[in-house]
Design goal:
globular; 7-stranded antiparallel sheet; alpha+beta; 311 residues
Length: 311
């Protein structure tokens, strides 16, 4: 079997310890790495852990579980996929962070991999996916660590919640069955939902705004019946550099608490064009929050009515 070994690197204007921490804290990966949809810890020890990753490769959503060994003193993280997704037969690698100066660091990302059946077309597919993802991951990582301080004001999260006198499964089903949203939700004009891998969805929607305009968005969703659906929006409106979130459904003594959580990074370059020359970051934040919250509350309201109607 042919084992390919490749290395990518980039220089970042950030201390090596800061870079290491961002890579070590996997819960932040959807915010840092463009291909990453969602990450969860499966097991977690002092320096060994298992994580499950949902990400796109060459535009296709995939998921896998990796083992990681963290060596903070060496600023090194080794990783290895437990069971790889075809056409990958095996995949592993290493992050190595090297201090260049007190405020600069070299980030090295090493991969080794094999293809299913050692097929040349499979190896070519993996070559392209690893190269594309590595370049985008490193560029995004550099951008994120360099913007960390500047973007503190631009990153925010919020949540909308409703109490439902019904079953969590019914509320979950309403959100999960997004292919029916154009029939069930007035603000959704058209939906295209695909689920090639169970629990991993691609969702494209045409949504009507309050002013009557229609916007097309695409998201990838990871479903956890019947308590959570995590997502990452990959086609973004002009005022957002990032939009991730999740729907949660928690059983209570009186029914269900259903919530919609959003995390957003604002795109300041488009504030004047969208909201006018006098608009501030605070105006953009309020505008985005209102737009997202309006749709979330509408969807939660219809989910509530659906679940309560099925009691």
């Amino acid at each position: 079997m042919t084992t390919r070994e490749v290395e990518h690197e980039i220089i970042a204007d950030a201390p090596a310890e800061t870079v290491f921490r961002l890579i070590a804290e996997v819960e932040n990966w959807p915010r840092i790495f463009p291909p990453t949809i969602h990450v969860e810890y499966v097991e977690r020890g002092a320096d060994h852990e298992r994580i499950r990753i949902w990400a796109t490769a060459n535009g296709e959503p995939k998921n896998w579980t990796s083992r990681r060994t963290l060596a903070p003193a060496d600023l090194r993280i080794d990783f290895r996929q437990e069971v790889s997704t075809p056409p990958v037969a095996a995949m592993g690698g290493t992050w190595i962070i090297e201090p260049a100066m007190a405020t600069r660091s070299k980030i090295r990302l090493l991969h080794d991999y094999r293809a299913v059946d050692d097929a040349p077309e499979n190896l070519k597919w993996i070559d392209e996916a690893v190269d594309r993802n590595s370049r985008s991951e490193l560029a995004a990582l550099r951008a994120n660590v360099e913007r960390a301080h500047a973007e503190a004001e631009l990153t925010f999260s919020f949540e909308d919640t409703v109490a439902v006198d019904g079953a969590a499964k019914d509320v979950y089903d309403f959100i999960n069955e997004a292919h029916l949203w154009s029939e069930r939700l007035p603000h959704v004009a058209k939906v295209r939902l695909s689920e090639g891998t169970p629990g991993l969805q691609s969702l494209e929607m045409d949504t009507r705004a309050q002013d009557g305009s229609v916007h097309t968005t695409k998201s990838y969703r990871v479903t956890f019946p019947h308590y959570r659906i995590a997502y990452k929006q990959v086609t973004l409106p002009a005022l957002m550099n990032l939009h991730t979130g999740y729907w949660t459904f928690a059983e209570t003594d009186s029914g269900v608490t259903a919530s919609s959580q959003h995390t957003v990074v604002l795109n300041t370059a488009n504030i004047a064009r969208v909201l006018g020359n006098d608009a501030t970051v605070a105006d953009a934040r309020e505008y985005v929050r209102n737009a997202l919250s309006t749709n979330s509350r509408a969807t939660l309201g219809h989910a509530k009515a659906y679940a309560e109607g099925r009691r």
